[in-house]
# Entry
Amino acid sequence: MYYRKDLLAKLGWPKERIDGLPEAVRRGEFTLTDLVATAKEAVDKGVVEPGKGWYHRPTRGHDHYMFYYANGGEMQDRESGKLVIVPSALEKHFQLHYDAVKTHKITPENFLGSDFRQWHETVTSGKVLFYNAGTWTWKEWQTTYKVPEQDLWDNVGFTLIPAAQKGGKPTTLSHPLVYMVTANSKNQELAFRLLAHATTPELNSKHAVESAHLAILKTQEQDPTYQKDKFLLQTGYMSEFTTFIPNHPKYGSYDEVLFRLLSAVQAGQMQPDQAAEIAVDELRNQLKDDLVVK
# Structure
């Protein structure tokens, strides 16, 4: 979760509180409820325009599930590998997004499905208080949107996704990729050697620094290239709080249902409890024995 330090200052936050926000989130002291209240206050006081208190991802994608996880959600059973849905967490996830658009007016109407470039141009112009995106956007804002790095350090802070309740655990989400060598490969040993050479601390640290991606290897933490990157060193602790999207062949169907119902909630076409009930019914019908409802 990124936030504008300059806008919090305009809201009356002292520097110590602004700089201490990541630790307050880490300890579960600043929650999603606090984030929403702060964004609403910023709108009410004219620090930001209506709809610019919180920008989440504007398109379909895995980032949305950080808020489902924050509310007690699960996505995959560790023992069986089956997909999991937690109806109570899903309803809270939908309620958060409904309130952001319809109740508190901190997220724009018709936001889902909007243009990602416009999203970046709006947040980099300093018009949005809170906005969540990947670590790699820190570098993208510099390279694609020509924001000087020092301007980011001066005006933009970053923290975990806050916990849903006081004392709860904050979260974030990862999408790890798995390299596999097929059984019928004629060059299994060569393919394995290639992957081994591509997965060295040196190469991955070079990639991480150039693109603002976190380390994938513990050994990278001591790599000289990685050690020189201030942003990566300050965000590395977030891996301790991460969650994952499911590694399951039917995840696409699961994701389609939940995003479609989230879109309906934000559009005001359904109430959160109704959307959660329909989502669970659809998942049961589509996934059958591949789904666990908790």
